[in-house]
Amino acid sequence: MKNVLYMVIPCFNEEEILSDTINVLDKKMNNLIKEKKIDKNSKVVFVNDGSRDKTWEIISKISKKNSLFSGISLSRNKGHQNALVAGLLSCKDYADMIISMDADLQDDVNAIDKMVDEYLKGSEIVYACRSKRKTDTFFKRFTAESFYKLMSKMGVDIIYNHADFRLTSKRVLESFSKYNEVNLFLRGMFPLIGYKSSIVFYERGERCKGESKYPLSKMLSLAWDGITSFSTKPIKIILFLGIIQSIISFISLIIFIILDINNYHTLGIGSIISLIIFLSGIQLTSIGIVGEYIGKTYFETKKRPRYHIDINLLEKNNG
Question: Where are the chain's structural domains?
Fold first, then answer.
């Protein structure tokens, strides 16, 4: 079997860092080819996720100059997870193994060697996980670690401190292609597939150019998508709270009746209003959470395409 490696790199407005990324990956891939760990037909595939800057222009130019590089351009911005899936599924017919990573060079490219080694030993999924979070602020470190712990408590099978830097075999992607959901959380989907897997550790660096494409709002949105796409525990928690609330309300009613019979002063109107507002808040929150699940079901039943490819240089290069 050939050890053809394809790197899939989603890009959104990455013109500032992209030239550096190309130089680093060019050196890394050629070293792996020289060491005969990967086949000479291996490639780096950039997925342009509707960038508004010169990202696609840079990708197009390098694909003409260097056969190691190719690109796919989506018809519009569809988000990191959809762009990543577009790249993975477009490459699976050409590669034996595929590594996905971000374009910002924060992921250590030297971890690629270890990932390929694990693949050659028989692993079909290799998760690259952060060994330390020294470069993160206290807030970033606290929220990230809390996210993984929360996901585990919610019953989601997730790899601790792993994002989307991973190696997957062709067979894994064939199995993954059968997953047709619209609400994507890839960190939780790949562990569901099974097959032999392993973990390599690396230290994540700081972004040297450009701006992060994952601010706090997007991280929170991703976390919520992960929870609601893989766990029904929030609904079970609502049910539990509803039962507890009903029991407390019933006991309170009995107490108030007894106090009233014995001519004791009960709670004033202000306290009653506060209690009503509090309970109304719980009810509205509960309805909102249930609504999120209904909304996700609504989008899943539509079965709309997750992305549309505008230009596929990969097909031209392999045609």
Answer: 5-213+306-318, 233-302
Q: Which of 31, 38, 42, 37 is nearest to 8 (CA)?
A: 42
Mention the CATH class of domain 5-213+306-318: alpha beta
Report the sign of the C-alpha dihedral through residues 192, 89, 210, 43, in that order. positive
Check if the beta carbon of residue 138 is closer than 8 Å to that of residue 127. Answer: no
313-to-66, 70, 273, 316 alpha-carbon distances in Å = 13, 6, 64, 5
Percentages of the chain per state (helix, strand, coil), in multiples of 5: 55, 15, 35
Q: Cα(first)–Cα(last) distance of the chain, in Å?
A: 21
CA-CA distance, 11 to 108, in Å (whole number)?
A: 17
- Residue pLDDT, tens place only, 7-48: 999 998 888 888 899 999 999 999 999 988 989 989 999 999
Cα 152 versus chain centre, distance: 15
Q: Cβ–Cβ contacts within 10 Å for residue 256, how many?
A: 13
pLDDT tens, residue by residue, 64-86? 899 899 999 998 888 888 888 88
d(CA 48, CA 90): 13
| Mutual angle of helices 186-193 and 216-230, in 10-degree steps | 40
C-alpha–C-alpha distance, residues 193 and 176, integer Å: 7
Q: How many CB atoms lie within 10 A of CB 295?
A: 12
Q: Which residues of 114-131 are buried (b: 16+ CB within 10 A; e: fewer)?
A: bbbebbeeebbbbbbbbe
Q: Would you say 60 and 313 are in contact if contact means Cβ atoms under 8 Å apart?
A: yes
